[in-house]
Amino acid sequence: MIRNLLAAIVLLALVSSYFFYSNLFGVRPVLVSVVYPFQYATNVVWGSVAGTPSFLIKLGNLAKENAELRRKLNMAQSRLAVLEEIKIENERLRETLAFQKGRYNFKLVPAQVIGKSGVLLLDRGSRVGVRVGMPVMVKEGLVGRIVEAAPFSSKVLLITDAMSSVAAADQRSRDFGVVEGGPADTLSLKYVAGSGGVGQGDTIVTSSISSVFSPGIPIGTVTRAVKKEADLFYEITVKPSVDFSKLEEVFIVF
Amino acid sequence: MRFLKLFLYILTILVLQTVIFSRLNFMGVSPDLALVSVIIFAVLEERSPSTLFAAAISFVQDCLSVGPYLNTAFKTVISNVISSVRERFVGDEYSFAAGMVAIFTPAYILAEVFFLYFVFQKEIGLLHLVIKIAVGTIYNLLLVPLLFPAVKAVVHE
């Protein structure tokens, strides 16, 4: 009886400790670092084993795909050169109008997904400059943010996680709200005033009032937006723009 | 030697869980190798070693994730409950383990959902919950034939 009681107290203390000492005095990053080499090796082996059949099937199309990718790269580079010009012009105009400096000056560092355990485990850590709070994205949109950085790996809290919340805005109506994760890998946009104009099919992006994420990164599309007469806020469901089950490579925003 | 085998078992299970089995995610549920291992271990072993095993494997699992130590708390309790009832069970260990997986997987998912609801105010629709429980239980029951011989080999030196 006493042993059970002691065990219950220890477990309760451990659960409560998360809210005050989330990295358990450095124990968590150490354990992550110990397991990391095995995860990395397994991921490499699994990648080559699982990728072999599709590689063989795709082998015939490689030359065609290569040519297509080169063409797209050339196009993207040309567009990038134009965008650089526009960016410089934008910054100059902002200065002229005494606006705040734009927040689009960021560097993207690629990282491999080596595992998933509620969070995404990446093969980049504090050794290459990854810090807690850095946003993580792919070309489709926002993935999440770094919540723990060990020397060689880091953990990403997905935007679909129940503990995640992101300041967001409707790209069309410019209504502000907070995107929160749910227990079934879904997203909901909360605290959008009932007077707003959010509609089905609207794109939700990160908001300019966010202190963590750069503005304008796509989050998802509104699949349901309803407001009952007595409610102050909309009830909005958002379908993420990223397919989280297929993430292999992501970009950390430095 | 036994300690080394247990260490290697825990490491293998958690690496497989995070790297390979997590890819089978469906509606936020993937097979939980650690939970099935804890249940089988509790069926085959005495209370103290199985409690320690449950605490160790689920603590490392929690450290590889984020959030409060729900795995550690719930799985240690599950291991203890199974230890309390195993002496009164008449029948073969394999069926007992499968039965416990069928009971404790839904219980574990429900406990997790209740925690999220009361601590983080996150609601889940009834249909989602039912699908989550069904998928989780099927996944975990499929793991029993794979993990039972492995745990038995670790337990019986």
**H/E order of the elements of chain B?**
HHHHHH
* CATH topology label of chain B: Arp2/3 complex 21 kDa subunit ARPC3
The CATH superfamily of the largest domain in chain A is Rod shape-determining protein MreC, domain 2
Helix content of chain A: 25-40%
Please explain how this structure is put together.
- The complex is a heterodimer of chains A (254) and B (157).
- Chain A is of the alpha+beta class and 254 residues long.
- Chain A has helices at residues 2-20, 27-58, 62-96, and strands at 108-117, 119-122, 135-138, 141-149, 154-158, 165-170, 176-181, 187-190, 203-206, 218-226, 235-240, 249-253.
- Chain A has 3 helices and 12 strands, in the order αααββββββββββββ.
- Chain A starts with a helix and ends with a strand.
- The model of chain A has no long low-confidence stretch (mean pLDDT 83).
- With 157 residues, chain B is mainly α.
- Helices cover 78% and strands 0% of the residues of chain B.
- Chain A binds chain B through residues 4, 7, 11-12, 14-15, 17-19, 24, 27-28, 31-32, 35, 38-39, 42-43, 46, 114-119, 121, 147-148, 155, 157, 160-163, 180-185, 244-245, and chain B through 11, 14-20, 22-23, 25, 27-28, 30, 51, 59-61, 63-70, 72-73, 76-77, 80, 113, 116, 120, 122-125, 128, 132.
